[in-house]
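Re: folding output
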Amino acid sequence: LLEATRRTIGLSLPIISIIFLLYGYYGKYLPGILYHKGYPIKDLIEYLYISPNGIFGLPTQVSATYLFLFLIFSSFLEKTGAGLFFTDMALALTGRWRGGPAKTSIIASSLCGTISGSAVANVMVDGWITIPLMKRTGYSSHYAAGVEAVASTGGQIMPPVMGVAAFVMAEILGITYGKVCVHAAIPAILYYLSVFFQVDLAAARIGLKGLSSSEMPKIWEQMARKGYLLLSLVLLIYFLVSGYTASTAVLVGIGSVYLLSLISQSTRLGVKKLAEAFESAAKSALPVASACACCGIIIGITLLTGLGHRLSALILYLAGGNIILLLFMVMIVALILGTGMPTVGAYITVVALLVPAIIKLGFLPIAAHMFAFYFAVISMVTPPVALAAYAAAGIANCSLWKAGAASFKLCLAAFIVPYMFIFGYPLLFVGSYSEIIYCFFTASVGIWCLAQAIEGYSFRRLHVIERIVLFAAALLLIHVGIVTDMIGFGLLFTVIISQGGLKILFLKLRKIK
């Protein structure tokens, strides 16, 4: 198992697993909180192999029962040409706007994310089209790579088909996968809004224009050619939110993709394409399945030795009851783990070791798990090991470090989103509809303020003081509370007035009229 994991995803996870194995054996020689009685090799092997908490535990079960079916669904859609269709649709919708190709990348990658759930895979599907377009319209190579990497990474948190960690979360919490999708919807939208705002402001700052009509596909032509493929996603979403199991929903999705593909010769899944689709799904499953099984070692040792409970107690002690400090520590650990292993490995490790500490402080389990999950995902675009950014850099033919830095800057606003929903449950669709709508609105405005502060541009270039004021407004709007929201809106309108935004808006409306 360790060798299979090394071959498919690299050394990081096997090394961590070996450290846990050594801990299980040599724990009796360790001091303080790390001490336990120690277990002989025979007991360790028996527990990890036979126990439902070991190698054949929950992560492996999820990868075998749910994930593989979704990978088949993804492969079927890919072989019908749905990925290119999504890109063409996004280009038709946003291509004419300023910085249109970057916005195309965001929309196309979010759509493709619904059929793959893999950041690097999304980059390799969309990047060959969107990155050259972004470079042609004036974006630098490393910025184009950063946009594609960040947009593709969001696919892992975009319902209806998220990464494998989302399936593991559903099993751990004992809820349906459909409910996980509902809880993840608003954070995913906020993530993409943050990237969308930043690329729009960057385009305005450097004076970029959109594509000409001759360069863009026609939306109705695209819908006529392959629009019927969207019905499979509609059916999948319907069955997920209707309370059916994820397995039932995805089986319906697979069957509908096959039947819909027969409508046209260009999308038809013949014997050859079907064989290629199954082969692609099997190859895609290898790294995830080996990672899930290897994580079983970490989980097994953690439960066997009681390490998780002791670490939770230690973290709570170190945080001194300060929830912000505790969340910051969890964020750092998730980011560090995510740079060396797949999202599912980082998420499972954080859940086993740190998430219980958040729950002990009275936070909802779904909020604590989503917090860990979110940062495990963002680690894909966080240097020094930003795999999605490096894949995009290869397509853009630019420096890996510059692409990584650009992706990190673009997702800075997204670093705030988990703190928003951990303190504001309505952003996880928990609460009344009025609370959910209000919190979503103020959060969106807060992210817009943060994007302006990061990019240094609003209606025109921002002064340092204006950027500081907007940053403060963003934090106030992010915090759940009427008083802080009113102060935040006041600061925002102060900057708008100083920028001459009302005058600019009035002139634009007059011109339209």
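--- second protein (sequence, then structure) ---
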Amino acid sequence: METIKGGEFLIKETQSENIFITEDFSEEQQMMRDSIKEFIDKEVWPYKERFEKSDYAFTEEIMVKAGEMGLLGISVPEEYGGMGMGFVSTMLVCDYISGATGSLATAYGAHTGIGTMPIVLYGTEEQKQKYIPKLVSGEWFGSYCLTEPGAGSDANSGKTKATLTEDGKHYLINGQKMWISNAGFCNLMIVFARIENDKNITAFIVEYDADAPNGITMGEEEQKLGIKASSTRQVFYNDTKVPVENMLSERGKGFKIAMNSLNVGRIKLAAACLDACRRFTTASIAYANERHQFKRAIASFGAIQYKLAEMATKTFVTESGSYRAAKDIQNKIDELIASGKPHQEAELKGVEEYAIECAILKVYASETAQFVTDEGIQIFGGMGFSKDTPMESAWRDARIGRIYEGTNEINRLLSVGMLLKKAFKGELDLMTPAMAVANDLMSIPSFEVPENTHVFSQEKEIIGNLKKTFLMIAGKAVENYGMELEEQQQLILSAAEILIEIYMAESTLLKTEKLIQQTSIEACESQIAMTKLNLFHATEKTNNKGKEAIVSFAEGDEQRMLLMGLKRFTKYNNPPNVIALRKQIALKLIDKNAYCF
């Protein structure tokens, strides 16, 4: 199987047989999915009210049960008590354990991701033997202490200090951390602090025992908009003694640890949004079928069908991109291990390779979760605004997704920034295809309408043209601004929107194409409709954001030429009937009375 490099989707065509879709789950993965769904439906969903009443002890209780089921160590190597499974299985578990409530999703993500993985990936053998089995079993819980009052998106600007004691045996940590998930029941903290005047922060493993706090005090539980039963506190350190052997990795490597932890966190966050989208789309469909107005079910109204179709489509798109990237990461990890790299290094480099895709998915998935729950409230009408229905808490829980693991604005800027950095380093050849697009603009366009012999002939051509649009805009922007481009944040945000739409639209088309190969066109009519509907939206957004970008930096003849190119690259020969597509998707959902893809 050929795996393309991170960001290479923009300049290479991917074959559908080379991507992973959820229908490819192994028998073992299907059993795992079903057992997690059963666990959530039995132990969590019926008790949602307890989470909404800030029952932190209940969250901890569920986490202990997850540990007993082995769900806290899916990707942890077996020698440390984990299950040693691949990246796709890790995504699957994160996906299905997170759908019922954001409180559990946050506790699980913080513990298994940023609370445990830094030790797995950067720890010494002694550190791993000492701490990982306890974290995997649920005997201990972890938290990740990075954010400070003055250091949010600028993580490396933290003021927390670590000072070596005179005998050279301990570091004394002094400072303050905020928004620390799991703080109220953690036994271990990954704490980032600066030694002397180092340029970069350093990471430490800090044990915490409430009965012997070692200079650690906790603020009260934060009163939050959502994720009410996710323990979130400020943590204060006053001469907290940490043995020198508890430094994680090397001095000054904390910033790199933080960034790589966030890469993993971003794609896991995408997974954590998925089952929530499925569940709340299903709840909306069921309500629309039950609720009658004007002597008919509201599901029969076109305005409601519009919403259901868009909710399902965005959910399907999110799933397509998330599992595509997860398998690419897993393939890279497997390839590195096969070449002799140790597990730690392979896992780190595998995720780092696809940091662009991780940023894209984090943005798209978190905004989809917000969209789905918001439209869900609208379908429920007045009842949606009531705490008696699940929509109100789901909407509040979804809101944090756009903030943590780096805000969506930071991730948009990062996605384009990392892509251009790869190009400048020579890791991705963007210049050759960008020059080809520039030459293409000077040529006379063909007015022949191609024969659409394949179900997605037109759509594949359009995705190719959207890639040309991005290369055209990015190429000219780099030409105009050079290294100053990073100061043009609004321009980069417009380019990021196009980049995101390209990756997600292509992932969806490839998933549907693979499904057709596995079944038939007839069996995939709704998936085809969702693919076409999503691509129409992607093309419209590309046209809109493309104009915004072009007129911000080009004038005169150059502007006219670029706008003509944009028009050409976002043109449909046969525009889809989006109203008919939505109706087709909605009728399938209404008939099944659930999200059924």
